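Sequence, please.
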């Protein structure tokens, strides 16, 4: 997308994809662990459970802080914190998703000649998140967004569709598709997918009016009618 983006409160940002056409990342809850204890737990077990919960809470905080750094475009800090989470819990799939998209953005905006390397490593992390949880919609969305960022538009459209198949209310996936068609000057498909995003969240209109991805279609009556009425 280029991309207007959303941090938690939907902030429209510049011409290129910014990190924030994202949804709020869920904090990993206690439902991720399953107790196998039957009957009263001994004191040692209770202490162990408390230590495990304390670790989960600490990793959640690191993960959320890493995500916040990503939203603030502090990609190296985001990558570093998510690495800490992964080192302590290699099954923490959410951290791979954030590290992956942060690497892609870092390679695009800050990496210079490292662009391809960072993109490849970013995709490996996103794919690792999906290997751990194949229906993790944020990882699917991040994969779509990264392909869009690097102008692999047909592949991005495929992954946006994959995201929508799992989460039909993925507003920013519809918006991402609209943005790609907007760059291509395809008025009917731009309007089609942008309308789906607006139907889910009318606030999208004001971001679409400022979105440079729509420059090739913004003067069409269909687009103007959609975003201004």
């Amino acid at each position: 997308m280029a991309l207007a983006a959303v941090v938690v409160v939907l902030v429209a940002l510049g011409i290129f994809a910014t990190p924030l056409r994202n949804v709020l990342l869920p904090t990993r809850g206690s439902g991720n662990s399953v107790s196998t204890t039957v009957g009263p737990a001994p004191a040692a077990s209770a202490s162990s459970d408390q230590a495990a919960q304390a670790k989960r809470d600490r990793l959640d905080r690191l993960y959320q802080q890493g995500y916040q750094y990503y939203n603030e475009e502090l990609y190296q800090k985001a990558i570093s914190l998510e690495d800490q989470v992964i080192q302590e819990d290699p099954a923490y799939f959410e951290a791979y998703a954030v590290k992956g998209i942060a690497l892609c953005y870092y390679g695009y905006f800050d990496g210079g000649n490292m662009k391809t390397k960072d993109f490849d490593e970013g995709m490996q992390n996103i794919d690792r998140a999906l290997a751990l949880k194949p229906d993790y919609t944020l990882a699917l969305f991040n994969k779509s967004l990264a392909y869009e960022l690097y102008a692999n538009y047909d592949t991005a459209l495929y992954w946006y569709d994959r995201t929508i198949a799992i989460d039909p209310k993925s507003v920013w996936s519809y918006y991402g598709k609209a943005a790609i068609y907007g760059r291509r000057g395809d008025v009917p498909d731009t309007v089609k997918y942008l309308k789906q995003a607006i139907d889910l969240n009318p606030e999208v209109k004001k971001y679409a009016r400022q979105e440079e991805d729509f420059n090739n279609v913004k003067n069409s009556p269909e687009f103007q009618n959609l975003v201004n009425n």
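The first helix runs from residue 43 to 71.
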